[in-house]
Design goal:
The structure is a single chain. By secondary structure, the chain is an all-alpha fold. It has a single domain, classed as Flavocytochrome C3, Chain A, domain 2, CATH 1.10.1130.10. It is about 35% helix and about 0% strand. A two-stranded parallel sheet has the order 1-2. Helix 2 crosses helix 3. The relative contact order is 0.14. It binds heme C (4 copies).
Length: about 240
């Protein structure tokens, strides 16, 4: 017969395991949540190639580009696991897009593909916004970084744009992008130039300033200096 202490220890271990898991990685939730607060960015993002990335996988779309990359323009690639991963949010990750159960809020390269899976930091945005509005108190960006918000972006962009053999990026793994500089030089990736292209990210809108300090994106102040007022004078 087993000693009760063994059971007690097993129970403790199981609890630690479950609790540890619950505290683990943030989940992808889809852009609906982000867009309800950040309407101006969402509206601007909708016009980008990232927003329409899933359309490119449909038959007879971007036929010339597909031919050039050795792909079949007549084929439907929208359910192909070798393609979908870089044309949606969070493929293969917790809460991310699934081929068998496709969420329309995770189709295309959306908010969380760049800013990080949002389940843990979006609540901080809400609280920090309210605290700032009511009492003028600011919140450290460290809280955002600790809950999965990305203020650097380089690794995220690279995982899609530089994922091919010989790109010089360390994280490469299959499936690779078919669109490399060997196919056409326009497919080369220059982070500093691309990230400053508001037509490819979204337009920037003035933030009231609820968050302060590092880690702050290196072009944050530059973007804010020329940012537009958002529609309702909010966020
Ligand atoms: C989940 C994968 C993914 C991530 C992450 C990603 N991109 Fe993209 N990007 C794409 C895809 C796919 C396209 C092409 C969309 C289409 O036309 O179908 C694209 C298109 C672009 C374009 C437009 C190119 C053109 O033809 O004008 C730019 C610029 C760009 N991305 C820059 C970036 C930057 C900068 C980042 C990081 C801040 C980034 N991307 C993050 C997948 C991604
Ligand atoms: C590792 C990530 C990745 C994978 C896997 C991937 N793509 Fe993409 N795809 C991209 C990126 C990044 C771009 C944007 C390239 C650019 O404009 O610089 C892109 C762009 C495209 C475009 C638009 C090209 C243009 O010139 O407008 C098409 C079409 C496309 N991909 C189809 C596919 C198909 C079909 C597959 C599967 C066979 C696939 N992609 C797999 C990352 C990927
Ligand atoms: C392709 C990458 C990319 C995608 C997709 C993207 N963003 Fe951004 N976003 C950025 C970059 C880069 C910045 C600049 C960061 C900074 O200044 O701190 C930014 C800044 C912001 C800001 C700060 C204020 C501003 O306008 O600059 C908000 C809010 C924001 N994004 C919300 C969103 C929402 C909501 C979505 C989805 C509808 C989204 N973003 C999709 C790259 C992206
Ligand atoms: C409940 C509303 C709400 C939701 C949901 C929300 N945000 Fe925010 N977000 C805010 C507020 C408020 C701020 C602070 C604005 C200020 O005062 O500067 C903020 C700030 C930001 C910033 C700027 C951070 C910085 O460096 O200063 C980015 C980027 C951003 N949000 C992206 C997102 C993304 C992506 C999502 C979805 C995963 C999201 N937000 C969800 C309300 C929200």
């Amino acid at each position: 017969m087993r000693h009760p202490v063994t059971y007690a220890l097993a129970a403790v271990a199981l609890f630690a395991f479950l609790a540890g898991n619950a505290a683990a990685d943030p989940k992808f939730e889809g852009r609906k949540k982000c867009s309800s607060c950040h309407k101006s960015q969402a509206k601007s993002w909708k016009k980008t190639a990232h927003a329409k990335a899933m359309n490119s996988l449909k038959p007879n779309k971007k036929a010339k580009a597909k031919k050039r990359a050795g792909l079949d323009p007549a084929k439907d690639y929208t359910k192909d696991k070798d393609c979908v991963g870089c044309h949606v949010d969070g493929f293969g990750q917790e809460g991310g897009y699934e081929i068998e159960d496709p969420s329309k809020y995770k189709k295309g390269v959306g908010c969380e593909s760049c800013h990080g899976a949002g389940s843990k930091y979006r609540g901080i945005h809400r609280k920090a916004g309210a605290k700032f509005e009511k009492k003028g108190k600011t919140t450290s960006r460290k809280k955002l970084a600790a809950t999965g918000q990305d203020m650097d972006f380089v690794e995220r962009c690279s995982a899609c744009h530089l994922n091919y053999e010989g790109s010089g990026w360390k994280g490469t793994k299959e499936p690779y992008t078919p669109f490399t500089p060997d196919v056409h030089k326009k497919y080369s990736f220059d982070f500093d130039k691309y990230v400053a292209d508001a037509k490819a990210m979204h337009k920037h809108y003035k933030l009231p300033g609820a968050f302060t300090g590092e880690p702050k994106f290196k072009m944050h102040d530059e973007f804010q200096a020329t940012a537009e007022e958002s529609k309702k004078g909010k966020k």
